[in-house]
Amino acid sequence: MKDETDLLAIIASHAGRDGPLLPILHDVQAAHACVSPEAEALIAKALNLTRAEVHGVVSFYHDFTPEADPRPEVQLCRAEACQARGVEALLPAAEAAAGVRVKLSTVYCLGLCSAGPAARVGNTLHARLDEARLVSLVERA
What tens digit of pLDDT does each residue of 9-19 get? Predict the structure, then answer.
């Protein structure tokens, strides 16, 4: 089974590392666009953890998804600082621009509190967004 072999290779690449669970989960998410229940079980077995422990981490962090979603994703910060800078007023236009083609996700703090509202597409952060800039960002995603 190719996926299992790939998962085992990812797990092996973190052998001997302290606290390998999060790095493994990030690598699995990057390689497979999700952390499936089957992957959770394999990771749990390899790390001598329960499935519940692994699932608890997967379900806690917004970075991990149980199923692959082929749509591009725009993560929009809706933490207090971005709310104070007007992010809520931008949501209707962003949602309209996203439609069903783009996944618009809420995250809480991208670390740009003084330069909000902020969003992330892939590994790129965007700050000081107004409605026009956010809509353009969503349309280009």
Answer: 999 999 889 99
